[in-house]
Design a protein that fits this description.
The complex is a heterodimer of chains A (109) and B (879).
Chain A lengths: L10 H12 L2 E2 H11 L11 H10 L3 E7 L5 E7 L1 H26 L2
Antiparallel strand pairs in A: 1-3, 2-3
Helix pairs in contact in A: 1-2, 1-4
Chain B lengths: L2 H13 L1 H25 L4 H12 L2 H12 L2 H19 L1 H30 L10 E8 L3 E3 L3 H10 L3 E15 L4 E9 L2 H5 L6 E2 L14 E4 L1 H8 L9 E4 L2 E8 L12 E4 L15 E6 L5 H18 L1 H4 L3 E6 H6 L3 H42 L4 H37 L14 H27 L3 H5 L6 H40 L9 E7 L8 H17 L3 E7 L10 E6 L12 E7 L3 H5 L3 E4 L13 E5 H7 L9 E4 L7 E7 L14 E5 L12 E8 L3 H15 L5 E6 H7 L2 H35 L1 H9 L4 H30 L15 H27 L3 H6 L2
Helix pairs in contact in B: 1-2, 1-5, 2-3, 2-4, 5-14, 6-13, 6-14, 6-15, 7-10, 13-15, 13-17, 13-23, 14-15, 17-23, 17-25, 17-26, 18-21, 23-25, 23-26, 25-26
Classes of the chains: A alpha+beta (109), B alpha+beta (879).
Chain lengths: 109, 879
């Protein structure tokens, strides 16, 4: 099995924002959703998600509150703020720009 | 970043860090449980499922820490920890803390106080709109330099210039106001109407002057200052149209100015400057002129235009204006005047004091580094990073210096009060000196800078301890030696800095001593002086003025204890009052601009006798020298030497520019006095009889009375004043004081600089002594073991004494050597503050160096004596 690639620096924030843009979610769910969406092509050390979540929350892009999970346990739910939605749009377009540029370079023969 | 949320989170973590930790724990446990359940669903055994979940999660402890860093702690909590730790440390060592904070407070306080003065005098803009466009204009005379201008010249400047929005002329004056309970001297500005527009101030009530009101023969009008309006009219809103009695004449009040406007020179009352278009004389120069530049005109452009204009006027009026130029200066520079160098020197001096204070505190801290070496080593061994330790030590330094800053600010508030109360009134803007927000910012800034300066060395030292060495019991090896070298260097710099300060103070003391020994040319002992001014209302004509003065002097001379009394227009020591050019009869004619200048005084008979000025030849002026008798004059020795070298001046006649009647016959020669100040050479002077006063049509109303007593002048003062006011109850008598006090007033500013610089140097000396003492006695403690061995091996007490003292004296001598070099380079800067002493005066340099060396010796001997009392047995056991 080929080694799954590590996430480039900074992209985790983008993935978290994207995952939360669908619906509010607890930390575990955010991880699950990223994995699903990436169709298991990415591997995330699950723990590192949490410092990232806290950092994004401090930036004001997401906010959190305690809620109840699908299996009736207390869990901390995160949701995108208006600012976060804007940030997601910015980061998405930046990402597209970047990948397009990198692709162009790599296609050169 | 929404700082508010972050801040609240941090605060919450500070208050209840457990709660934050619990939340993080719970969130992660939930994650692991979910993953485990998922794994079990996929068919793993519960143990395997848990293991796999933990593996996927990563290093859980580290992640929790990272999370807590973001959510709770961060630098905020670190700081809080350091602060709490610091407070505990300081409370455990109150002696150390007190000394460090006090030392810093002294340094910071002195700096803050002097900065308040610099701030008020030099930095704070003048309280007027766009001060950078307000210019002071003086006439430049070929002989006398910058002087006030004449009325016609002012009018020419005003009408013909293109550079100024407004040009205004003014005179400082003072008038007596009848307060009902007696008369009071008030500063009054005589100004042209443009003055108010120029300063961009509008009256809060009524109006200011019109051009009409400057013409002679109009109603007498006055504008009130705000505080005068409050104090004399109870802020009466209907004050306009009422009258005020000035010098016994009624003036109609037409306006009230807002608070804060008091130009020129604290004026609280303004009158229009009289301009008589039919009597314009280019001779007398007495008007001060200010102008506001047009926005697009620079000072240089205005100077160029005005110089051209002055040249044109010189050509048009060669008889009076020949060679006259114009000098433009910013008003600010004129107001501040010559105090700038003194202030910068004082600021430099307090800067040195602060550096010495820093060195001392750094020394104290370095001493503690030794004590705390083990603590630091343990922390490092437990994983504290070097940065973490440096940060903590810096936090402690910062706490010390903030403490010092707060205490220093208190010292400064008190110090500024003291400075203002004892500061001479000749310091410009002295009443504006205060601790304002800018000063507080300055204090804060130097506190922080201070903590960096004194905290740096100890922090770096402490952060690289030799671990194994420090952890060993009583490790005092190479690191200790290195630290000692650093401490010695600090002490050497302290000694050098204080030597520079002491030499500066020494030079000032020598100057002052020389000045105090200067013979003023008169004998002030037993002489009283007082100002007297006759109101126009009571003494409307010359006869009455003249007869009153002769009566007054008779009465004064008849007062018990008074030997002789006389009057003069202006006493010596405080500069020029009236100066004029003159020619000597029978000498080849001289172009006006090349004519010599003399100081002009009006005196009554017996003035020289009363002042103790020797009459060298001829006679005194007499009451018989009237306007009907031939004009006579008494000249001083300087005049005689300069213009009649080798011949007797007696019998020669001189003509003053602008005088009335026949030339003045020289009838007497008197000794020189220091007219312009003790530190200035005597100049040529003439004294004319009161009843002749050839430069004026009228007799002088304001004179200074001098009375020589045969007893204590203080005891005679009361009866003299009573005797004079018995002639006229409303007679304003002011500035009644012994001549010795007047003499010492003339040195007030020098004394002020001297006291401050000496105080700073004294503080520096004490701090340096404490520094030497600290290092030597620390050295002794450290070397107890070694000293014990030496003594056990047979060293005498004297040997030990020598050993310890030598160590201290090497530092002291090194510091003195460096300090001497620095002084040679730096004392040049204070040349303008010195008098009669070379900036490298060998005596001062030697005495001060010896003084500092003796103090250093004393500071070494105390710990050295302690070292000789070391008991070898105890010392060898001592660990």
């Amino acid at each position: 099995m080929a080694k799954k690639p590590d996430l480039p620096q900074g992209t985790l924030d983008l993935l978290v924002l994207k995952a939360l843009s669908l619906s509010p979610m607890h930390g575990y769910g955010v991880g699950q959703r990223i994995q699903q969406l990436a169709e298991d092509m990415l591997t995330v050390e699950e723990g590192t998600l949490y410092p990232a979540l806290y950092r994004i929350e401090q930036k004001g892009w997401i906010e959190s509150e305690w809620g109840v999970s699908e299996n009736n346990r207390r869990a901390r739910f995160y949701k995108l703020t208006r600012k976060g939605r804007k940030q997601l749009a910015i980061e998405e377009s930046q990402w597209e720009h970047l990948t397009a540029a990198v692709a162009k370079v790599l296609q050169a023969t | 970043m929404p700082w508010k949320k972050v801040f609240l989170d941090r605060l919450r973590a500070l208050r209840d860090s457990d709660a934050v930790h619990r939340e993080i724990d719970e969130e992660m446990r939930f994650h692991l449980d979910m993953r485990t359940e998922e794994n079990v669903r996929k068919g793993m055994s519960p143990e395997e499922a848990r293991r796999e979940a933990e593996k996927r999660f990563g290093r859980i402890t580290r992640i929790k820490e990272l999370g807590y860093e973001v959510r709770g702690g961060g630098w905020f909590e670190t700081l809080w920890q350091d602060l709490r730790y610091g407070v505990r440390m300081f409370l455990k060592q109150p002696g150390f803390t007190l000394i460090a904070v006090l030392t810093l407070a002294l340094g910071i306080g002195a700096n803050t106080a002097i900065f308040s003065v610099v701030n008020a005098v030099l930095l704070r803009p003048l309280p007027l709109a766009e001060p950078e466009r307000v210019v002071w204009l003086s006439d430049m005379l070929p002989q006398a330099g910058a002087v006030p201008t004449s009325l016609p010249e002012f009018l020419d400047w005003k009408d013909q210039n293109q550079s100024f929005e407004q040009l205004a002329a003014f005179l400082n004056s003072s008038m007596f106001i009848d307060t009902g309970g007696g008369t009071q001297d008030m500063p009054v500005g005589l100004v042209t109407p443009e003055m108010f527009a120029l300063f961009r101030v509008n009256p809060i009530l009524g109006r200011t002057f019109t051009n009409e009101e400057t013409l002679p023969g109009r109603t007498r009008v006055a504008v009130l200052g705000h505080s005068m309006w409050q104090s004399h009219f109870g802020s009466d809103p209907n004050v306009i149209g009422k009258t005020i009695d000035l010098d016994g004449v009624a003036y109609t009040i037409i306006g009230v100015m807002p608070g804060g406007f008091s130009f020129p020179d604290r004026a609280e009352l303004w009158r229009p400057l009289r301009i008589n278009p039919n009597a314009l004389d280019r001779g007398p120069h007495y008007l001060h002129v200010v102008g506001r530049l047009k926005p697009e005109v620079t000072l240089t452009q205005a100077q160029a235009e005005m110089s051209t204009l002055a040249a044109r006027l010189s050509a048009q009026h060669p008889e009076k204006n020949a060679g006259h130029g114009v000098k433009l200066q910013l008003l600010r520079d004129v107001v501040v005047g010559d105090i700038r160098p003194a202030l910068f020197i004082l600021l430099g001096a307090v800067g040195f004091v602060l550096l010495i204070a820093c060195a001392n505190v750094a020394n104290l801290l370095l001493g503690r580094v030794g004590v705390r070496q083990k603590e630091t080593a343990v922390r490092t061994a437990l994983g504290a990073s070097r940065l973490r330790i440096v940060r903590q030590l810096f936090t402690e330094s910062m706490m010390l210096s903030i403490g010092g800053g707060v205490a220093g600010l208190l010292i400064a508030v008190w110090g500024v009060k003291w400075l203002v109360s004892m500061g001479p009134t000749t310091i410009p803007r002295v009443h504006e000196i205060a601790v304002d927000p800018r000063v507080v910012c300055f204090t804060l800034l130097i506190s922080v800078a201070t903590s960096v300066i004194f905290g740096l060395a100890p922090a770096l030292q402490a952060s690289k301890p030799d671990l194994t060495d420090a952890l060993k019991e009583g490790g005092r090896t190479s690191a200790g030696l290195h630290r000692n070298r650093l401490r010695s260097m600090l002490v050497i710099s302290e000694v050098a800095l204080s030597l520079v300060l002491l030499i500066g103070a020494g030079l000032m003391i020598r100057s002052f001593a020389k000045l105090s020994r200067i013979d003023p040319g008169f004998n002030p002992d037993g002489v009283l002086k007082m100002g007297v001014s006759l109101l126009v209302s009571k003494y409307p004509d010359d006869e009455r003025v003249a007869s009153f003065y002769s009566q007054l002097l008779e009465q004064a001379a008849a007062t018990p204890g008074v030997v002789s009394a006389a009057a003069i227009s202006d006493l010596p020591l405080f500069g020029s009052n009236t100066s004029d050019n003159f020619t000597i009869e029978g000498r080849p004619p001289v172009a006006q601009q090349d004519q010599p200048i003399i100081e002009y005084h009006i005196v009554t008979p017996r003035y020289f006798e009363s002042m103790g000025i020797p009459l060298l030849a001829g006679r005194d002026v007499a009451w018989t020298d009237t306007k009907q008798a031939p004009n006579v004059v008494v000249i001083n020795e300087a005049f005689a030497e300069r213009h009649f070298a080798g011949e007797s001046p007696m019998g020669h006649r001189i003509s003053l520019q602008g005088q009335e009647r026949d030339p003045l016959l020289i009838v007497g020669v008197v000794g020189n006095v220091r007219q312009l100040g003790l530190d200035r050479k005597p100049v040529s002077e003439v004294f004319v009889p009161y009843l002749q006063d050839p430069l004026s049509k009228n007799y002088q109303r304001s004179m200074t009375i001098v009375a020589r007593t045969n007893s204590d002048p203080g005891a005679v003062a009361g009866s003299l004043r009573a005797a004079l006011t018995s002639l006229d109850k409303s007679l304003p008598v002011y500035d009644l004081k012994p001549m010795t006090e007047y003499l010492s007033d003339s040195l007030a500013r020098r004394r002020f600089n001297l006291i401050l610089l000496t105080a700073f140097a004294g503080v520096a000396l004490v701090l340096a002594a404490v520094g030497i003492y600290g290092v030597i006695s620390y050295g002794v403690t450290q070397r107890t073991h070694e000293i014990g061995i030496r003594m056990a091996l047979g060293a005498e007490k004297a040997d030990v004494l020598r050993l310890v003292v030598r160590q201290g004296m090497v530092m002291a001598l090194g510091g003195v050597a460096i300090g001497l070099l620095a002084s040679f380079a730096l004392t040049r800067l204070m040349e303008s503050l010195l008098f009669g002493v070379s900036v490298t005066d060998p005596l001062t340099f030697t005495v001060i160096a010896l003084l500092l060396i003796s103090v250093a010796l004393l500071a070494c001997i105390v710990p050295a004596l302690r070292a000789t009392k070391v008991d070898p047995l105890v010392a060898l056991r001592y660990e």
